[in-house]
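User: Can you predict the 3D structure of Erythronate-4-phosphate dehydrogenase? Sequence below.
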Amino acid sequence: MLIVADENIPLLDAFFGEVGEIRRVTGRTLTREQVADADILLVRSVTRVNRELLEGSRVRFVGTATIGTDHIDLAWLKAQGIRFAAAPGCNASSVTEYVLSVISLFAERRGLDDWTALSVGIVGVGNVGGELAQVLDRLGFKVHLCDPPREEREADLDQTFVSLEDALDCDVVTLHTPLTRNQPHATHHLLSEQHLATIGADQLLINSGRGEVIDSTALLHRLEQPDAPLVALDVWEQEPAINPGLVEKTWLATPHIAGYSLEGKMQGTEMVYQAMCQFMGLPVRKKAGQFLPEPALSKISFTSAAEEDVAVRTALLACYDPRRDDARLRLTLQGNSTERAAEFDRLRRDYPVRRECSSLKIQLKGTSKSLQDSFRAMGFKLKI
Ligand SMILES: NC(=O)c1ccc[n+]([C@@H]2O[C@H](COP(=O)([O-])OP(=O)(O)OC[C@H]3O[C@@H](n4cnc5c(N)ncnc54)[C@H](O)[C@@H]3O)[C@@H](O)[C@H]2O)c1
Ligand SMILES: O=C(O)[C@H](O)[C@H](O)COP(=O)(O)O
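Assistant: Sure. Here are the predicted structure tokens for Erythronate-4-phosphate dehydrogenase:
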């Protein structure tokens, strides 16, 4: 049994070592020749899996250790009878924490003591947008949900949805749709020049879905205008060859790492392992939890003097502060486009260990019930 796998998938040996021989490859440059004799192909989002790659190969199972599937030709795999599995929701908490941290920094920049005064429009309310909505709601934010496919499917339920135009009216607009083309509610260039014109200087636009959901030529043009909104981009058109001019105009620019918590990546591996076991009729023997190392930061204490907003946001930024990733990306902007693209991938390959809020214990002494609820909402473990 030969397993060809992207070298950036963590715990390959631990999960798949007993199943077969593993051939590690660079996902971005994987060739037909490298995969022709494989039985199983395991990828991340940088490998296009289609007829060009797999026609004539032995591959019977393809797994992507990611949420997004826009790099996979699902219809072609199905027509060939090749089993496919993704990892839905694996890094939803990681992306949620990225968005919360960005909102926290935006509130600080706006001089707001109470960050929950910000209204948040979530475009795409699936695993990621749904988890984010729940956390924001529990924290006391006013949240507006935009998801036309769900709105159609759930017409008879109580959930209220808003139009894209109404979502774009919120203080913070955050995009969490998949990248889709040629289908109802397709998201390719969902945010056009006309939409971008309606987002003003006091607003924040975040994209951690896929770069192509925003028309980035129009976005760059919008950011050159004096009343431009603040923008935080984690995903870009044409990764890894991203536009350095757009990075310069972006407030927080990160190299597609919103989902890169250790927990998120390990759950991605675990989910494709489980799907592969099911496909091959093998027992599931491994769990991601058994491989999670001790976190470097394990406990933070707050006393009764702690102000609610400050305490919650201090702990959040201690877990993840996007300014570090922004600084690293900006350092790579020199050089020609080939060098910059290589640096973008290097930042992702050599990403430092980042742990989720759930890895951190919060010790609270004599603090309010509402502060405890806020920490719980964000997934922290409480020690009271
Ligand atoms: N930056 C990162 O590291 C990172 C990490 C994880 C996921 N992602 C991206 O985020 C996307 C969303 O992830 P998810 O787990 O929530 O996916 P999901 O499939 O669970 O949810 C996506 C939601 O978007 C909705 N949607 C589709 N078209 C829409 C439209 N035109 N307008 C509004 N909503 C629309 C769907 O109905 C669905 O509810 C993934 O497809 C992936 O591309 C990025
Ligand atoms: O879709 C996803 O899960 C994310 O975009 C994922 O974090 C992308 O990471 P990559 O596969 O490119 O390493």
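The radius of gyration is 21 Å. The first strand starts at residue 2 and ends at 6.
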